[in-house]
Amino acid sequence: MEFTEFVAKIYPVVKDSLKNHDKTKRFWEGRGVTPIKNISEVTRETELRGSEVSTGGTSGGGYGEDSNPRPYVNDNPEPIELVELDRILELVWPEITYLQYKALVREAGVKTESYTQNEYYGNSTNYVYMTVKLGELYKAICLRG
């Protein structure tokens, strides 16, 4: 399968992943990365980004003497997953085994990344998400599948 065929198969997943994650979309647009509007914009450098999970931050900041910012940790965070990767594999490699999946994730360079969204008065929220470049994913699937 050529890269263009791969993109044609997975395009609905890529488009949904960018459209459905508003916080991620705003975060990346603020850094000069615009969401993909059509299939011709998908390249090997296009990153597939998973849902963000809040892991904690700082709260309690306020104006003046009442300010008492303290760090907090999210005691019940959602699992950090790249569900979009699973959806892609259902389309292009439905018979993948668990061990093949683990090797694919490693070889494709799936990464966990984080950022902090700073708010007023010293408050902040920390986010974690997973990402993979489509070109690296394609290459790993071709090697394995």
Describe this structure as you would to a colleague.
The protein is an alpha+beta fold and 145 residues long. It has one domain. Helix content is 40%, strand content 22%. The protein has five helices and five strands. Strands 1, 2, 3, 4 and 5 form a five-stranded antiparallel sheet that branches. Helix 1 packs antiparallel against helix 3 and helix 4 crosses helix 5. The termini are close together.
Q: Could you tell me the radius of gyration in angstroms?
A: 18 Å
- Give the class from helix and strand content and strand pairing: alpha+beta
Order of helices and strands: HHEEEHHEEH
Give the uncertain stretches in residue-range form. Answer: none
Oligomeric status: single chain
Strand content: 15-25%
Major pleated sheet = 5 strands, antiparallel
Mean pLDDT: 84
Cα end-to-end separation: 10 Å
How many individual β-strands?
A: 5
Share of residues in helices: 40-55%
Output the number of helix runs. Answer: 5
Based on CA inertia axes, which overall geometry fits?
A: elongated
| Total individual domains | 1
Layout of helices and strands, plus pairs?
Elements: H1 3-20, H2 22-29, E1 47-49, E2 53-59, E3 70-73, H3 83-92, H4 98-108, E4 111-118, E5 124-133, H5 134-144
Antiparallel strand pairs: 1-5, 2-3, 2-5, 4-5
Helix pairs in contact: 1-3, 4-5
Brief descriptors of the model:
single chain, 145 residues, alpha+beta, five-stranded antiparallel β-sheet, 5 helices, 22% strand
In short:
With 145 residues, the protein is of the alpha+beta class. The protein has one domain (3-144). The protein has helices at 3-20, 22-29, 83-92, 98-108, 134-144; strands at residues 47-49, 53-59, 70-73, 111-118, 124-133.
